[in-house]
């Protein structure tokens, strides 16, 4: 199977990204998407399991979202079981699940600001 050239959010993830952008004070939606990806990786979110919803949210060109190729490289490092030639399929899954987890943690009061994310990271070290 060929890797994705465009990666997309589900409708639910797109809604959560817009809310988190405003709540956390980000200038760009893509930055929240990258944060969601990082949050998923940091929390060990699995790639396999429940299917994502329909890809009807915002679309991102892989070259624009991952200009230096680091997201793809992170997938290759932390998700060795994933096919090496399809990292952007994994990026799409992780960014959607990570945004969902961020939204869930926001609702639960686990995070309320960017500084809370730094504190969470310190407790995971």
- What is the oligomeric state here? single chain
Number of helices: 6
Strand order, main sheet: write it out: 1-2
The CATH topology is what?
Arc Repressor Mutant
**Percent helix range:** 55-70%
- What is the molecular shape? globular
The topology string of helices and strands comes to EHHEHHHH
Helices and strands in order, then pairings?
Layout: E1 6-8, H1 11-24, H2 29-42, E2 59-61, H3 62-65, H4 70-78, H5 87-108, H6 114-124
Antiparallel strand pairs: 1-2
Helix pairs in contact: 1-2, 1-5, 2-5, 4-5
Question: Which terms would index this structure?
Answer:
single chain, 125 residues, mainly alpha, Arc Repressor Mutant, two-stranded antiparallel ribbon, 6 helices, 59% helix, 5% strand
Can you walk through the features of this model?
The chain is mainly alpha-helical. It has a single domain (6-124), classed as Arc Repressor Mutant, CATH 1.10.1220. It has six helices and two strands; from the N terminus they run βααβαααα. The chain has helices spanning 11-24, 29-42, 62-65, 70-78, 87-108, 114-124, and strands at 6-8, 59-61. The protein has a two-stranded antiparallel ribbon. α1 (11-24) packs across α5 (87-108) and α2 (29-42) crosses α5 (87-108). 29% of the residues are buried.
